[in-house]
Amino acid sequence: MTYRIRPRASAFVAACALATAAACGERGQVAEGSAYSGKVAELIPRIEKVTGMTFKTPPKVATKTADEVRTFLEQQFAESRAATELEGQEQAYKLLGLIPWELNVKRLMLELLAEQVAGYYDPKAKTLYVVQGAPAEAVGITLAHELVHALQDQYVNLDSIQGAGNDNDRATATQSVIEGHATYEQMILTVGDGNLADKLPGGWDMIRQQIREAKNTMPKLSAAPMLIQETLLFPYLAGAEYVRAYTAAKGKGNPFARFPQSTAQVLHSAKFIAGTDSLPLRIALPKPTGGTVTYSNDLGEFEVRLWLYEHLHDQAASGRGAGGWAADAYQVVKTPKGNAIVWLTLWGSPVDAGEFRDLANQTVIKRFDPKDYLRAGTDGRRYVEQAREMLIKPVTVNGRAGVLWIDNPVGARVDIDVTLAKLSRPK
């Protein structure tokens, strides 16, 4: 669930870093007074040393009030593309049971970002903004994190790369490298150069736990649905792990020569970093019958895992069930009876597809407790429960094993011909 809103969760970054620094007995510091030029000048050579990258020009630094930041966020959400994206994703995730029907996602995201932002780098304005009144410790660490983003922007255009395409999985993977790089390097600054995991008691597992627990310092984030918590956390946690693996394999330097194209490549990074894996598949679904498509996108392996966990509450089964992911795509379809969703997943093998299909059936049972089901072909099932009709059946697309999921309002008849689905690989 990737929202392309430029201010990042910098207070969340600060909470992560302060938790890590506390384990080493160190604290972030910020220069006295309202001007941050001295602190920025002191941080720049340190950032260049830990990253192995050099600033081409010094970044601009300015301040904003909390009200100005909120106004800016509201403007970002009001942009036609962002508003359409947010509304479409909200409908899809509600239909998939990942967020409550009554949730206003736009309002929640505004509250979350307002709670979290202590500062941010705006690649469009090429300026690092510090929020007035933010705690000094949070500002000190935020400056380090956002200066890494300013450095990144001098090697790859962050504004264009974060706003490219209508591909949630790819966007999350891209964001993970950007945020993971800034988080990892900012932590190196906090604890000192060298192997970050070796410097902390408990190593990298402790770092993971500290980052995860940092969200507890933010009440609104802690109260948010699991999907929103985890998708906000993923770029920092999985992204930092990816950059750690990249640095171990490639050494210091620019990690942006080749971006992962999917969250699967972030989660299983060894082959991607070595350059031995193939590009992930992308699916173009055909037009459905019975309604009009209002939004289309994909989940990716990470969000498929979240979907399974949301309904099954079984971490091992969720990881196993999503682990064979090869591609997916969904459509939100408007019908006279209400919205439907069509979701096609493709898998690495028929065994992977069969395991996911079995778990998908379990999600329906856990979510709706249906009394019975109708057969749909040899191994498919059709459930009718609580004004919804759900179809889960095995399919084959261009020789690949897949699972088709269709959730209709009762009385609607949305369907697709999967033989017309087109597969491609991103360039």
Compact description:
This protein has 427 residues and is an alpha+beta fold.
Describe the structure.
By secondary structure, this protein is α+β, with helices and mostly antiparallel strands. The protein has two domains: 10-274, no CATH class; 282-424, 3-Layer(aba) Sandwich (Protein Transport Mog1p, Chain A), CATH 3.40.1000. The chain contains 16 helices and twelve strands. It has helices spanning 10-23, 37-51, 66-78, 80-95, 105-116, 136-153, 158-162, 168-191, 203-214, 219-223, 226-250, 263-267, 269-274, 300-312, 315-322, 350-368, and strands at 60-64, 119-122, 127-131, 282-284, 292-297, 325-335, 338-347, 374-376, 380-385, 388-397, 400-409, 422-424. The strands form three sheets. The chain has a seven-stranded antiparallel beta sheet with strand order 5-6-7-11-10-9-8, covered by helices on one side. Strands 1-3-2 form a three-stranded mixed beta sheet. The longest helix is centred in the middle third of the chain and has 25 residues, at 226-250. It is globular. The relative contact order is 0.12.
